[in-house]
Design goal:
The complex is a heterodimer. Chain A contains 5 helices and no strands. By secondary structure, chain A is an all-alpha fold. The radius of gyration of chain A is 12 Å and the shape is globular. Chain B is of the alpha/beta class. In chain B, strands 1, 2, 5, 6, 7, 9, 10, 11, 12, 14, 16 and 17 form a 12-stranded mixed beta sheet that branches. A 3-stranded mixed beta sheet of chain B has the order 3-4-8, with no helix packed on it. A two-stranded antiparallel ribbon of chain B has the order 13-15. Classes of the chains: A mainly alpha, B alpha/beta. The interface between A and B is medium-sized, with 15 and 13 residues. Chain B: Belongs to the thiolase-like superfamily. Beta-ketoacyl-ACP synthases family. Chain B: It holds the Pfam family ketoacyl-synt.
Chain lengths: 87, 397
């Protein structure tokens, strides 16, 4: 079974777990915007990673969360896990 | 020489009023908020009444980002802080961030949030616990979130001494201002009316099991049988008198004296009162009204009444317990009493103690039923925390 993880999935999970940021927030082209500029801190990413793990049945390395500073980096990291699911 | 520390803003979230003005009007009208608990099904528990805050929608006041990471108590605290700052006409963004501190008291932290996360932990597993549980439950969370929201990085902290905490936090704020901090948000809001918190409150053995709101919380009454629990409290803006004067701020009054003691072989309440009066350099005859701790426990009422008679003489000072309208709010209760004392000084009126028939044997001049107009310059606020904490604070117009 192959799964995909899209920007819309990420936005939905960010909103569910951490609420909507102020300002322009999640609208517009945010793929390469730093999460800190969007309005999400490291804890919001930790919460998001936890929710992604739950929903997709994968385990993300802590480094993935720590290093992914933009939505694109986060999507790439999750997608890599989806192609090689954890045991 | 120690600098005078004054209060320039009040933020109130109380069961019988949201905002200082609403709360004060309700309190003078004798409007009690004690009623059947509705926040969860309390029918299986011995105590079924509470002072709940109703008609409050946090989303109307706070950004979406804060909702998933805050317990009810933190939302109430953030709003109380916003209102206190607005009342003081302080815009935190215009002040240096290290010149402002936040010192709150807490009795339980974010209980409801924790209950939900622990339920997730045991029923579904650790993956289902929110990352925000790492701090959302914590006693210091209200201080932390107020600090972050308002950019206040000066001396901050939390004190955990049950009901006494509401005064102890303000006292700690006074110390920090005397050391040079320009402004401190201080006080307490507590809220733990979830089923887990409710079980915890029962362990004190001091909750009233009455089912009629009008005879459930009756301090200094022969029918006293424990207290009703409530939620809410107050936050105050404290500044040095000099700083308040420099910005031409409205001043409610001064934190003139404070002391805290601990019960040992003898109850420590009287010592706390005497030391607070000494700290304020005031004689008992100069105190115009006492806001009692009002435990509504026969033994604790006796100790408090004996203290007041020993210090002020029989019927020597008017005594009131407006918390009969809200229930005991734990740390939030003492902070709310302090805010109430300033409102009383401002308006020259002592709010009533509702539903109580004062027992003659205590020898107290208890202000019951109706507010009593009085020339008020000085008030004494008392608070006792479960486990032996006593705090007394003297405020002066």
């Amino acid at each position: 079974m192959s799964q995909t993880f899209t920007l819309d999935d990420l936005k939905r999970i960010l909103l569910e777990g951490s609420g909507a940021p102020e300002g322009t927030g999640l609208s517009g082209d945010i793929l390469d915007t730093e999460f800190s500029d969007i309005g999400y801190d490291s804890l919001a990413l930790l919460e998001t990673a936890g929710r992604v793990e739950r929903e997709y049945g994968i385990e993300l390395d802590e480094a993935v969360v720590g290093d992914a500073s933009t939505p694109r980096a986060f999507l790439d990291a999750v997608s890599a896990h989806l192609m090689t699911p954890a045991a | 020489m120690t600098a005078s520390v004054v209060v320039t803003g009040l933020g109130v979230t109380a069961p019988n009023g949201l905002g200082a003005r609403d709360f004060w009007n309700a309190t003078l009208a004798g409007k009690s908020a004690i009623g059947p608990l509705t926040h969860f099904d309390a029918s299986p528990y011995p105590a079924k009444l509470a002072g709940e805050i109703t008609g409050f929608t946090a989303e109307d006041h706070l950004p979406s980002r804060l909702m998933p990471q805050t317990d009810r108590v933190t939302r109430l605290s953030l709003i109380a802080a916003d209102w206190a700052l607005a009342d003081a006409r302080v815009r935190p963004a215009e002040l240096p961030e290290f010149d402002m501190g936040v010192i709150t008291a807490s009795s339980a932290g974010g209980f409801e949030f924790s209950q939900r996360e622990l339920k997730n932990l045991w029923s579904q597993g650790g993956q289902y616990v929110s990352a925000y549980q790492s701090f959302a439950w914590f006693y210091a969370v209200n201080t932390g979130q107020i600090s972050i929201r308002n950019g206040m990085k000066g001396p901050s902290g939390v004190v955990v001494t049950d009901q006494s905490g509401g005064l102890d936090a303000v006292a700690q704020a006074r110390r920090q201002i005397r050391k040079g901090t320009r402004l401190v948000v201080a006080g307490a809001v507590d809220a733990l009316l979830c089923s887990w918190g409710w079980v915890g409150l029962h362990t004190s053995g001091r909750l009233s099991t009455a089912t009629e709101p009008t005879n459930a919380y009756l301090p200094f009454d022969d029918r006293a049988g424990g207290h009703v629990a409530g939620e809410g409290g107050a936050l105050l803006i404290l500044e040095s008198a000099e700083s308040a004067r420099a910005r031409d701020a409205k001043v409610y009054g001064e934190i003139a004296g404070y002391a805290a003691t601990f019960d040992g072989q003898e109850p420590g309440l009287r010592k706390a009162v005497e030391l607070a009066l000494a700290d304020a350099r005031l004689a008992p005859s100069e105190v115009d009204v006492v806001f009692a701790d009002a435990a509504a426990d026969p033994e604790l009422d006796r100790i408090e009444a004996e203290t007041l008679v020993a210090v002020f003489g029989e019927r020597g000072v008017p005594v009131t317990a407006p918390k009969t309208m809200t229930g005991r709010l734990y740390a939030g209760g003492a902070a709310l009493d302090l805010a109430t004392a300033f409102l009383a000084l401002e308006d020259g009126v002592i709010p009533p103690t509702v539903h109580v028939e004062a027992a003659e044997r205590f020898g107290l001049d208890l202000v019951v039923s109706q507010p009593r107009p009085a020339a008020l310059r000085t008030a004494l606020v008392l608070a006792r925390g479960h486990g032996g904490f006593n705090s007394a604070m003297v405020v002066r117009a």
